[in-house]
Amino acid sequence: MCAERSARMYFSSDIYDIVTTVFWILSITLNISILLPTIFVRVFRRDRFKNLLAQLMLGDIITASGILFRACYLRSASNTTLLECTFGDFPSIAGYHFSQWAVFWIALDRLVAVSYPLRYKSVMVG
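^ thats the sequence. predicted structure below, dont judge the formating
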């Protein structure tokens, strides 16, 4: 009975790892495929809103990479100290804050666009 239960736990853990890896690969691939044109195409670089979206994508990439780093590190470590956990969590925490600031600036951009539609271009370039 115990062997069956532990086998089920490992099986569900393997499924979780596979699903997490697939979502991680999709997240990184899609964010990079959208971020690259934003960086290398001159028309996209001139638009401030697209720059804010690029910042959001970069934050997502950092977060996903940090989560992968943490998962791989904690999977291999049997016991970790608080300092090791902090270093393992740093990339994902930095990505979260990067993403939150990007969402804040996008919201501010949209607020200005809705509040002052005729003066939006002069306010944002300004």
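The CA atoms of residues 26 and 32 lie 10 Å apart.
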